[in-house]
Design brief:
heterodimer; A: alpha/beta; 3 helices; 23% helix; elongated; B: mainly alpha; Cytochrome-c3 Hydrogenase, chain B; 17 helices; 8 strands; globular; NAD binding (chain B); NiFe-Hase_large (chain B); NAD (chain B); quinone (chain B); cell membrane (chain B)
Chain lengths: 164, 386
Amino acid sequence: MAISLPEGSLEERLRRYLEGLSGSHGLEEAGIEGNVVRVVARPEDVPAVLATARERLGILHLSFITVVDRGDGDFELTYELLDLRGGRVRVRTNLRSEEPVIGTVTHIYPTANWHEREAYDMFGVAFAGHPDLRRVYMWQDHFDHHPLLKSFEISTKRTFEGLR
Amino acid sequence: MLEEKRKTVTERLASPDIRDEFGLETMDMNMGPQHPAMHGLLRLILELDGETIVRCDPIMGYLHRCQEKIAENRMYPAVIPLTDRLDYFANMHNEHGYCLAVEDLLDVEIPPRAEYIRVLMCELMRIASHIPSIGFLLLELGAFTPILYAFRERERIQDIFEAVTGARMMFHYIRIGGVKADLPPEIPEKIWNYIEGLERRIQPDFIDLIEGNEIFISRTRGVGKMTPEQAVELGLTGPPLRCTGVDFDVRRDYPYSVYPELEFDVITDDAGDVEASYRVRIREVWQSIRIIKQCLEKMPEGEVMADLGRRLRPPEGEGFGRVEGPRGEFAVHVVSDGSDVPYRVHYRDPSFVNMQLLQEIVPGHYLPDIMPIMGLIDPVSGGWDK
């Protein structure tokens, strides 16, 4: 089998990941919490950080990309990487822009293709260099909204209003 | 051979001269969203050269309910019944994943009996998902009997679920801090009797009936063939990944609940085609039976619900839950702002991610091979559309 899954003890691997990531990029924050390596990077460094993780450290699996809208054009992106043997790397970045743009990671993790399409559809976060940045759920024409933005209000907001 | 075929097709189409000379043209065809053999509402735009598929483009969103937005406007416990509606063949796993994420946020201890009941229910759910998925695969290949046998098994498991939870599909049973209610006194024996019978029936009713059947082999062997590298690149998890030989199982590699105390094997197969995915699924049923037996034997007495108070207000922060659903890794990311409503809930559904292989693997196959490949992924509409 050509896929090489990581070996060795978990702590040792996590330390290796932390050193590998913090050594080569100007990270804002880096540390280990439980079995997670938490890393905060600048938005422009994210593709490079993930390329290091995939190619130099051999972390195989991108689990998901979460976008959190903190309001007023402040977006928080979380990339969760798994080495498939107990180790996790969580790359976090903050985008501050009304029209957020970040570099794609599809050339590093091809699975990011649909994750990024989903993030674009739901939040309007554009991924520069993405091969096929279409909406994935909502219809392509005549729909100018991004439903998961906090500014997009739904009519049945806050059920249980009377209870609180 | 498939590689060659695919290469010739692409090369032929890439050259405009040849296209003019022979009058070669491709045809666009829609498959679905209303298609009798499709797993739910999915539209595939297929570009065909004769009967060979050149391009496959899945269009989703026909069942999109924006569950994540709805969850942002409900209190924490009120999101659980919504997660039931995500992947409706893996309701228990969805509830479990969400509850694990909120419990991670709250940092609470769950009574051990509740943990065992959760694992027991999840493994029954896995059987009730794997066996019908095999039935669907064969139904799409033209065999009608296996789906009847499969649904006979699923019905009996649903009867057990009905006795335990009061519902047959949308359970709302796993709660934040435990489970809704203890098992009724006669249920452990009923489950034991059922799985003993199932263990005896798998060999004659499924394996002997399906494996070795000439039509089954000719329709599935070598179809949807992928390498481990491709599977890992596409981010596949669950049986589609394990059928290529990569042994990754969230239950073993990212242990949660009481799985570290239970013994089971991770089933893999090297072929990486539809037949291999069938073999992985049917053999996982045996492992689930093993886990259920251990759960019933080891289950301690005691409470089934931790006392969390009436109103849940998790501290500011974020929680992660990750479970191995029947289709693969189901992960939940919950972000809290300190109020009683989640600030953001994100679901990573295995059906959604696994479906990416349609774009990569399908080109080069014949049109009728789409259905076995859908059987390999076994996606569920509620899952990929959230």
